[in-house]
Amino acid sequence: MTTRLLIIGGVAGGATAAARARRLSGTAEITVLERGPYVSYANCGLPYFISRDIEKRSALLLQTPEGFDARYRVKVEVRTEALEIDRKGKRVRALGPAGERWIPYDKLILAQGGNPIMPPLPGADEPQVFKLWTVPDMDRLDRFIEAEKPKHAVVVGGGFIGLEMAEAFRSRGLETTVVELLPTVMGVMDREFGVQVANELSAHGVQVVTGVGVKAVGADRTVELTDGRTLPADLVLFSVGVRPELTLVKSAGLLLGPAGGLLVDERLQTSDPDIFAAGDMVEVLHRVSGKKIRIPLAGPANRQGRIAATNALGGSMTYGGASGTSVVKVFEATAAATGLTERSARQAGFEVGVAVIHKDHHAGYYPGARELTLKLVYERRTGRLLGAQAFGHAGVEKRIDVLATALHGRMTVHDVAELDLAYAPPYSSANDPANLAAFIAENDLSGFAPLVTAAQLKAELATPTPPLVLDVRTLGEWSTGHLKGALHLPVDDVHFELAQVPRGRRIVSYCRSGFRAHLALRTLKENGYTDLANVTGGWVSIGLEGGFDMEDA
């Protein structure tokens, strides 16, 4: 018998599911309902059309209803909204250009995605206020810029889309401000990466305001902040998060999960055995924490669509979850992450270790080397890798992809230390930054060279019995600024000046990025000092953390 497969949602997961279903079955009757006017478009590319990095709008429209029908024999109905699921009768009530009707199904795949959150603020409906989620959103925004020639833009929200749009607006010549309620932009990453992203934004003329919210949008083309400040805003773009589209599933009585998304099992089957789901609306297993979460990213949505279609047509594929691997371009820099951040790992209850390096992305003697910040988060008890984050101007996504693969394989930092990675001077160093960070983690776990983070040092300095801080940089580095109260002893002098270093007290050493402080720590350890630690990431990480008492020579 012919299987009637109905798919609700025609972008990312839904479009992938439809194409996969046809490859699996030449006889299935496949129908896709899409509420918007377009199907299978590159929504991740929308900001790059606004910036004109992508010059042709048509490049974003990957498929049309006619093209889907011609290639896959899939019937796509755009501008058609699903209003009700009659689970008992196995039919969906839909409203489209031809009116309202019931569409029967044997198997149903839900891929409705999510909707951008628009806070109910005064002035949120002003004509200069925008969101960016669909092609019509993009068109409306682009027409406004072309017609109104705005001079000042305010981006509310410093996440992925907010950062991409800040760059797009600067590319179009707008004076741009990013307003983020959290203490740093890019709040899905740890603080030091948010600081580096903000620095990159500032270097390209974007003003960054953090720790403050938006109170109202004025008809006079201003934005009022919660701290009383007013910003000029000919154009306002909200990018403060996405909530799953659950209206239909709630009315159908399908079960929701603890993270607020649609509950599915490892086969992406909902609480109704004839209904599967994929994409932003579902919650899935986080491969590292083991908890159910929502990961509204295009990569997982597409893979889920493929699996949902397979199982809806009788297959037996499973989805093992996701690590939340993500990347964002910020002008000339890149920020990327996979797995758990230090913050989220601690919140999940892990005993966390952290190793940070600031290292050239390829051999320093080869022209063009750029410094890369790489942070590993690991479980102290087992050495298991929990997550990684990186920022830099070259080589970032390469390392994060390597470490995402390591996470998928449940590798330890010892495994990462042994990875045989490609090396030639234009591409890496003999020991890749991923290897080096793992070496540092191994030294920490073994007690060979214990680590503290900059934040941990700051906390220790605030206690009644603070450690002695040993600065082992050169005199020139020391004179440009150092921690107040630090003992200065260049690394090459430590062995000869041990009398200056008191015994019986905790000692924390730092240099610019960690290596020289590691050497100093080993010298002290070999000479009988016991309570020692090295600031992972050194002076660079201290500066990114901020909040320390500093002084000049």
Tell me the Rg in angstroms.
27 Å
Overall outline: globular
Poorly predicted runs: none
- Tally of domains: 4
Amount of helix: 25-40%
Helix/strand/pairing category: alpha/beta
Note the gap between the termini. Answer: 84 Å
Number of separate strands: 35
What amount of the residues lies in strands? Answer: 25-35%
User: Could you report the average pLDDT, rounded to the nearest whole number?
Assistant: 96
CATH superfamily of the largest domain: FAD/NAD(P)-binding domain
Known CATH architecture of the largest domain: 3-Layer(bba) Sandwich
How does this model look, in words?
By secondary structure, the protein is of the alpha/beta class. It folds into four domains: 4-114 and 243-312, 3-Layer(bba) Sandwich (FAD/NAD(P)-binding domain); 129-240, 3-Layer(bba) Sandwich (FAD/NAD(P)-binding domain), CATH 3.50.50; 336-445, FAD/NAD-linked reductase, C-terminal dimerisation domain (Enolase-like, domain 1, 2-Layer Sandwich), CATH 3.30.390; 451-551, 3-Layer(aba) Sandwich (Oxidized Rhodanese, domain 1). Strands 5-2-1-9-21 form a five-stranded parallel β-sheet. A five-stranded parallel β-sheet has the order 11-18-12-13-14, with helices on one face. The chain has a five-stranded antiparallel β-sheet with strand order 24-25-28-27-26. Strand 13 (175-180), helix 6 and strand 14 form a beta-alpha-beta unit. The protein starts with a strand and ends with a strand. The mean pLDDT is 96.
In short:
By secondary structure, the protein is an alpha/beta fold. About 30% of the residues lie in helices and about 25% in strands.
